UniProtKB/TrEMBL annotation:
The keyword Glycoprotein does not apply. Residues 1-247 form the ZP domain. GO terms for cellular component: cytoplasmic vesicle membrane. This is Zona pellucida-like domain-containing protein 1. Glycoprotein which is a component of the gelatinous extracellular matrix in the cupulae of the vestibular organ. It is found in: Cytoplasmic vesicle membrane; Secreted, Extracellular space, Extracellular matrix. It comes from the Eukaryota. It is a single-pass type I membrane protein. Signal peptide: none annotated. It comes from Perca flavescens (American yellow perch). Keywords: Cytoplasmic vesicle, Disulfide bond, Extracellular matrix, Membrane, Secreted, Signal, Transmembrane, Transmembrane helix.
Length: 247
């Protein structure tokens, strides 16, 4: 079985997974190569709730096509032919977490329940505005008001797609739904010590903020900060209309 009749291309054929019951055939469709197997991609923009229930413009990617069996090299056949048409929609918005400020990187694979759409997003911390050397955090922690440079980067995408950071915030725990949170930037508002350098213009979003402490950690030697970013993928031409106006 193959995608859209491309039986001669190994990348378009499915592979059998015998570890499930019943046995299934799995097809992997990458945003970077989906057209090479004849799939169709339609991107629409709609207003809906984001990761935290706030209304936001989100782009939705709909991937469609069909899966079939090869035709026999004869005029007639007594074997049934299989044809499955599919259409899957994926909201292109994700929550990227950095485990904690003492960790320099985190990567996630995003999986949706109506299929599996995998795109790797990395949240990285750097020493300075050159974004070359990743941040190394001493055992004693970072000094208050140390400037930290952060970047959200996407991989496994072609040039049609850019990264748009919707908002980034911090919590005193690893739970992104923690009731106590401090926004670095959110919609049109941002923390005075936060600067957004690049957003929606490439496959990397860049910003910087100054190290602070949570007051609830006053009895602790160090205040641990967990960084989270709600991030969208958008077509390069459409990103400007999805961006909020920063103050």
């Amino acid at each position: 079985m193959a995608l859209n009749g491309r039986h001669g291309d190994a990348h378009c054929r499915g592979f059998i997974n015998n570890n499930t019951f019943p046995t299934v055939v799995i097809f992997s469709i990458s945003l970077a190569t989906l057209e090479s197997c004849g799939n169709s991609l339609v991107v629409s923009t709609a207003q809906g709730p984001n990761a935290y229930g706030n209304l936001s413009l989100v782009q939705i990617g709909n991937i469609s096509g069909y899966i079939d069996t090869p035709d026999p090299p004869t005029i007639i056949s007594y074997l049934p032919g299989l044809l499955y048409k599919f259409s899957c929609s994926y909201p292109l918005e994700y929550l990227v977490n950095n485990t904690q400020l003492a960790s320099s990187a985190a990567a996630i694979s995003v999986k949706e329940s109506n299929g599996t759409f995998i795109s790797t997003l990395n949240l990285l911390l750097y020493n300075d505005s050159s974004y070359i050397q990743q941040l190394s955090i001493p055992m004693a922690g970072l000094t208050l008001k140390t400037r930290v440079f952060a970047a959200v980067k996407a991989s496994n995408l072609d040039r049609r797609w850019n990264v748009l950071m919707d908002y980034c915030y911090t919590t005193p725990s690893g739970n992104p739904n923690d009731d106590l949170r401090y926004d670095l930037f959110f919609s049109c508002e941002k923390d005075p010590q936060t600067a957004v350098f690049e957003n929606g213009k490439s496959q990397m979003g860049r910003f910087a903020f100054e190290v602070f402490r949570f007051v609830k950690h006053k009895n602790q030697k160090m205040s641990t900060i967990f960084l989270h970013c709600v991030t969208k993928l958008c077509r390069a031409d459409d990103c400007p209309m999805l961006m909020p106006v920063r103050l």
